[in-house]
Amino acid sequence: MALKIASRFRRLLQRPGSIDLGPYERLTQLVGEAEESVVALTDEELTEAVGELRTTGGLHEDEQIEFLALARDAGNRAIGERAFDGQVVGALAMLQGRVVEMATGEGKTLAGAIAAAGYAVGGRKVQILAVNDYLARRDAEWMGPVYELLGVTVSHIGQASTPDERRTAYEAEVCYVPVSEVGFDVLRDRLVTDVADRVTAELDVALVDEADSVLIDEARVPLVLAGATRTEELDEDVVQLVRTLRAGVDYEIDGDGRTVALTDKGTDKVEAALEGINLYEDDNLDRLTQINVALHAEVLLRKDVDYLVRDGKVSLINNNRGRIAKLQRWPDGLQAAVEAKEAVPVSDSGEVLDSITVQALVKGYKTLCGMTGTAVVVGESLQEFYEVDVAVVPPNKPNIRIDDPDRLYLTIEQKNVALVEHIAEVHEAGRPILIGTHSVEESEQLSDRLEAAEIQHVVLNAKNDAEEAAIIAEAGVPGTVTVSTQMAGRGTDIRLGGRDETHDKDKAIELGGLYVIGTGLHASRRLDDQLRGRAGRQGDPGGSLFFASLADELVTRYSVSSGLRPHPDDTGRLTDRKSLGVLEHAQRVADGANAELHRTTWSYHRLTGQQRAILLDTREKVLTEDLAAAELAEKAKERYDELVEEVGEDTVKDAARRIALHHLDRRWTDHLAYLADLREGIHLRSLAGGIVHLKPIDEFNKSAIASFDTLVADSWTDAAETFKTAEITSEGLDEAASGVPRPTATWTYLINDNPFGTEADRILGRLRNAIKPESVAEAEEILPEEFDEDELPEELRDADDEDLPEELREADDDDEEDPKDSKK
Fold it and tell me: pTM of the predicted model, to two decimals?
């Protein structure tokens, strides 16, 4: 009984998108009434009125009403945009720490600026976390006049910003900055040896643009600070040898396409080619690692899909954005393997000095809010990982976009033929078309087919993303066909008639508005909805249609279709419910797999974050106080007193601080390397447990705690040993001569967590392939979640069904009546 009540109680309290907008709408009416007196103010008087509201404790309700009236009028005066009621509601929700869902074209940028200014007037520092440099700069400059009229300082940061520019920008009341840049700055600040070298300000308010993408899709991506150590270069004979291996004979790819492994025959072939060595002997493990990474690079990483080769360098493609990931690289020698594969110079390698996930970074802010076009779908995840609720703001004008049902085909070739024919048919009428593809390779292949069909078009992908603004500006002009990679993640509006809406806007409306075509479904329906949302902005007409095939990667990777007996028509199109159900099932499985990966990644990073916090607390005391001097004076008193007499106490304190910081950082770097190795093999312990099932995460935490337990104490021991023999003169500490050098160079990058997959991924993948049935398998039974009655409110613990609130009450018969429901 308690389990059933708990389930209903949770659905009631954590139903995504269920925040009541009534209070916000009531306040918005009052804002409209207050605005009447604001219109008569001069610009100077408006700025002065905002100044009178400034406080350090946040704006109270009456003050929020007055501020929003002033801000709404400021937007009208400064940039000619008076916030709609929906934008005011959105700003209010963000000021209350919500993630706001507003449809594309509904003015999220202005709503976010008003909310940010409201926090600033209330005495808070706001960082608006953007997804890239372009949007951070664009929005800061676009909204700049509004902030100026409100008397709020604003700035922006990009990859090219210098340390001094960053330091100044972070001091502004509102700073627009890519989320990765904040993370990298935080990492660099953690390694400074002088407080004056820091650039970041205290993390106070995070207002996240494209919140679902940043907080969910990219949350598990580790941001890394590395220090130069060596250049990793694969032997040429290994590169050439791997190219001779045959799929299905010498190596096998797992069912998910994430890992590749040599077969017994492949192992024999490789060992014979390498003069009969045994790859699995200890002396040859380095060579085995080279073979594995070279095989991964050759087989699983695809040019123009996962990376580009440009200007003699391998550049990774951000799969969520369809852009070059300028600071991203693969770890563990994989980067060097791809560079060897493409015959470009091998870049420096390094050791990880520190890392942080986007999720851990964002959770470091005191207040979190945000905005996006698709938040409800991930509402439960936002509540689970960030404890924030979603507020859905209805559009200013009703959405009249027509979304046609997905078209499914048997083969990719049949899909592509139908796709081009449909594009030609729509284009002939002159309707503007936006086509969303999944990769650079796919966009260029489609471009070739459109050229063969004599359809004029323009392509936007990672190879020309610098031209994005110009291309997107004209995508709504009649007769225009735009082929884009990952349009769902580009964060820009498309106006009918072009940027200034003067190029035949009326004709575009008459033709039905922008027509969005997807060349395949994404792993998440939410990304499909983002792509669809490019059409039908602000009540404009529009339409969308997605094409798919049973041979698409989404289906082959996440669903089992071998039991189907499809009956396509002459064009290869499938319309039966079973085939369409396979497509929907694949997308649901992919969504669930990504959510579970997020959950697992966070589980492993949570303890590391707690340990990092302990270390940083000690490091902060060393950096800002005389803790190092006190510790080393106690552990090496004779040496300390001798040095104080020779070079002075201030010089000794500075040297002690630098030595202590070096060893704390060194121990932490070694600990991170240990954790990386531990996580890679931890799943083997669960297999070694015999009858007793050992949870990998529990075993990981147990070993991680044991490793960290003496880390700080060992650092002090190391520091004392160094201090006794360090070269310390009146000029200070000679770091190189004393054996405590700083990294000769550091750089930042992003990595995909566990690119090879865990050992469990490889083992379970083989098991799954071995037992995969010929027909569609029944979904695994989902067992009820264990629930502690103490989590329920006291008055509900012993309640009968009839005593429950209506929202929690369900007839027992309903739970058992429909067998289909129970399977779901």
Answer: 0.79
